[in-house]
Amino acid sequence: MKKLAFFLVLVSLAFCQLNAQTIKLLAISKTNGYRHAAIPAAKAALTLMAQQQNWSISFTEDSLQFSDYKALKQYNAIIFVMTTGDIFSDKEQAAIQKFVERGGGLLTIHTGTDTEYDWPWYNAALGAKFKSHPKQQQARFLVKDSVHPATNMLPKEWVRFDELYNFRDSIPTNLHVLIELDETSYTGGTMGKHPIAWYQTVKKGRVLQTALGHTDASYKEPLFLQHLQGAIAWVSKANTQ
Q1: Which domains are seen in the chain, by residue range?
Q2: Running DSSP on this structure, what letter comes out for residue 115?
Q3: Residue 123 has pLDDT above 80, yes or no
Q4: Distance CA 162, CA 218 (A)
Q5: Can you tell me whether residue 9 is helix, strand or coil?
Q6: Which residues form the ThuA-like domain (predicted)?
Q7: Cα–Cα distances in Å, from 138 out to 46, 104, 113, 153, 184?
């Protein structure tokens, strides 16, 4: 009887190990433009999140780590942590494109739309380019998708303080909007209908852009951190949605 119980415990442990998914992430915070003071806070928060979720995360400022698809494919997803400007060579761009299109994930935090303006594939994958922002202020965020893992924990109307991006053009209709800004709740919005977080699939891969997260305080907000956690899980395909 004891042997049977021991055997069942071993089977249960093996089953759990098979079903546990270890997420491996590569995050870059390289800048060739404005460098956000909140980068250290973001990295600290993501490090703690990874520890709590039993994920593996590596941080770099070296774009050469993105130059080889064979090296990238060991990761479930890559994260752009407040990157700005032109930071990747043609070879690195080609490897990232291949990584995403073959099933990898890409999450951009806050400044994805302020990165790589002259890279056509990236701009199509992300869906927008940064134009401007008013002063940092409190605003009302309208959650348009309450089912997605990046937003299912958020209230339908989420009031918080941040730097609020305007984009050069309207967001393409093929993108799935997660969160919009209510421009009547603050000053300086120029979009009218104003998506601020969205996603799309790019061939076999997943891309999610959130323009939230400018301030140090953002990385101590439980709801914002849950938003990022859900976004990472989704682009990494840790769920089937």
Answers
A1: 21-235 (3.40.50.880)
A2: B
A3: yes
A4: 8
A5: helix
A6: 24-235
A7: 24, 34, 21, 20, 11
